[in-house]
Amino acid sequence: MNRPRTRVQNEIMMHVNKLLSSFFSALIAVFFILLGTICTMLPYFSTIRTYVISFLLQNSISLALMGIIMVMIGLFIILTILLSARRRDYRIRSGRHTTIVNKSLIQQYLDSYWKELFPEQDIPNNFILKTNGIHITADFPFLPVTQQKPFLEKIKKELTHILTTIIGYDKELFLAASFPETTSH
């Protein structure tokens, strides 16, 4: 089963993305500074001009390799931009009304709810908003099998109430849960 990422894992991924973005922004800045410096110096130094022309004429394989590397860096930067710009909000339609809700807001409500139920533990969870309803997955601590069904029914009822009153969500809520078979010490 594909386990949902925890809040800590999401924060780590966010920091890694910021670090990569900063690194490539700095790399692009240095590239343009060096290219600008060389272009500025070319008209004034004939020996540099001769070396540049000689390099361009004699090293076609090196130029092709540099071109491939630059295209790959450009594609990676575009991919990073596209991934960081993906939509993080949902449009929720209830009758004639449309509400725009940020994904992190729903996640905060879920995290707060789990903290109320389990103050001493982090509950790994994830949710997806689909046209037929919200799908929530969560990994709960040990609970005897006889108590699991009433517990899940209570959670489903309370979360439905929270989502209806706070964001006006009136579609079905689907809850997928896992419980360990024994208590862990």
Tell me what the structure shows.
- The strands form two sheets. Strands 3-4-5 form a three-stranded mixed β-sheet, with helices on one face. A two-stranded antiparallel sheet has the order 1-2.
- The chain is built from five helices and five strands; from the N terminus they run H-H-H-E-E-H-E-E-H-E.
- The chain is an alpha+beta fold.
- The chain has helices at 7-41, 46-58, 60-84, 103-117, 145-167; strands at residues 89-94, 97-102, 125-130, 133-139, 172-178.
- The protein has two domains: 7-84; 89-178, 2-Layer Sandwich (Alpha-Beta Plaits), CATH 3.30.70.
Total count of domains: 2
CATH class of the largest domain: Alpha Beta
* Derived structural class: alpha+beta
Q: Helix count? A: 5
The unreliable regions are: none
First-residue to last-residue Cα separation: 23 Å
Helix and strand run: HHHEEHEEHE
Helix content: 55-70%
Tell me the strand percentage band. Answer: 15-25%
The whole-angstrom Rg is 27 Å
Number of strands: 5
Looking at the structure, the CATH topology of the largest domain is: Alpha-Beta Plaits
Q: Strand order of the main beta sheet, please?
A: 3-4-5
Average pLDDT taken over every residue: 81
Main sheet, how many strands, which sense, barrel?
3 strands, mixed
What is shown here, in short?
This protein has five helices and five strands; from the N terminus they run αααββαββαβ. It has 185 residues and is an alpha+beta fold. It has two domains: 7-84; 89-178, 2-Layer Sandwich (Alpha-Beta Plaits).
